[in-house]
């Protein structure tokens, strides 16, 4: 078990290195950061001064070496806009993003898996068709459109929930819950549609297996067959799609935080792009990439825990 986890950790290192290299190259291939920061009307002297200040006057390979060494020391650079460290900027925005992501994952898994089980149990019934309709709508409606629909219905028409803003759950749990409902629903709908459909298809496949028919012939209650036998054997594809969905969730955080004005890492990304603050852009891309690699590592570990027969 520990050897397999260590192997997966070692396999993640090249992935992280490739991501870091791509981030370094993309920022420089999209244009000269010094020219972008100086503006179109800046004199060559101003551009040259900014180039020297950012270390962009050195050869590309030299810049890359400095970039890697700084990352190994935990130095992601300094924000051009705020003159604060990039790590400090990300850390200051981390709580809203983590709270929103955790709430979305909990709500999605808690609702989507039972929906898939019920739809598989009542195949071709009204419940199954209702789930399919929900899944089609969830896949079809863009997240930002869904966010404005929720704002229109629950905030403007019914006046039940706040439109935007963030309240820390450590300061005011009830206020935090009210502010998180709409962003969480916005992020969860697409994720929920995906997991529910996969859970339904996987459980339907398991229910046609011989061991399920044998269990029914022995008089095992249908509830036990569904939740103990079918769901457990269908867990691998469900866990896989949960991991994929978390990757989509990371990208959805950027749009959702912008719509609901949440001061998280997603909003920081948009602000950094608009301000042309390329050190912060680099930092948040690496942060999201490392988060996705970590999620994949946890999913691989979950495979081993769910089915000990799995070996890499």
From TrEMBL:
Q: Where are the transmembrane segments?
A: 98-118, 130-157, 177-196, 235-260, 280-306
Which UniProt keywords are listed? Cell membrane, Membrane, Plasmid, Transmembrane, Transmembrane helix, Transport
Q: Which residues form the signal peptide?
A: none
Localization: Cell membrane
Tell me what topology the record assigns in the membrane: Multi-pass membrane protein
| Keyword set includes Manganese | no
- UniProt cross-references to SUPFAM superfamilies, sorted A to Z: MetI-like
Q: Which residues form the ABC transmembrane type-1 domain?
A: 94-299
GO CC, any one term: plasma membrane
InterPro entries in the record = BPD_transp_1_N, MetI-like, MetI-like_sf
Biological process terms from the Gene Ontology for this record are:
transmembrane transport
Give any Pfam family that matches: BPD_transp_1
Per the record, the similarity remark reads: Belongs to the binding-protein-dependent transport system permease family.
Q: State the name under which the record lists this protein.
A: Inner membrane component of binding-protein-dependent transport system
Q: Which species is listed as the source?
A: Tistrella mobilis (strain KA081020-065)
